[in-house]
Amino acid sequence: MEKPFGFVYETTNTVNNMKYIGKCIYGRINNWETYLGSGLYLKRAIKKYGKEKFIRVILVEAYSDIELNQLEEYYISKRNAVESKEYYNIKMTSIGGDCFTTNPNKEHIRSLRVKQMTGASNHQYGKPKTKKMIEAVKKKNSKAIIIDGIEYSSITAASVALSLYCTTISYRLDCDNFPSYKRIVPKSLRPTNKHAACKCQVHDVVYESIAKAALAHGISTHAMRNRMYSRNFPDHHIIVE
Description:
alpha+beta, 3-stranded antiparallel beta sheet, 9 strands
């Protein structure tokens, strides 16, 4: 009989009844039996109230990494955990993603970021912008995109029309949580280091590179590369030729 790969769980704070939905694999280094979750606000609550004030129940088991990710997103969506004030969740998945858009402290974070990037606090303060730098930014933001079915000539054009920052739009274009944000010309798969171009194997499937494996599984190249060297993912391997 096939053994389950992991499970989706719900952790409840017995003090205020706030909850958190997450996932866990049975082969994790830390004891899965006592694992409560690693969400930002959940960890703060555990630190405040103590582990003994939290209980965890398993909602469903999964038999593969892909199924586990899908089930986690399903339950987070089904219970509206990101929007609900009864949950600690701030994004649709524990794999990467947009942690800013639904963050309850978004405006405070934004003001701190503005302060960090203004005047002498900015690492580019007082430094002239080179022609190469300007051209690189223009090139990045000049490719046509589609948002909610409407085509824009560039990220900059969409930014003006939608009153959103270019960085916000760029982030959403690369985030699975915003399927209506699409690039007309997909980003090229460029390896981030010497290992990213190596062949690898995930669940008996061989990929030409870590980048392509990451794309197939809907996670970042960085996350996939980490799995290749993690004992938590015994079926992820670098193929040495």
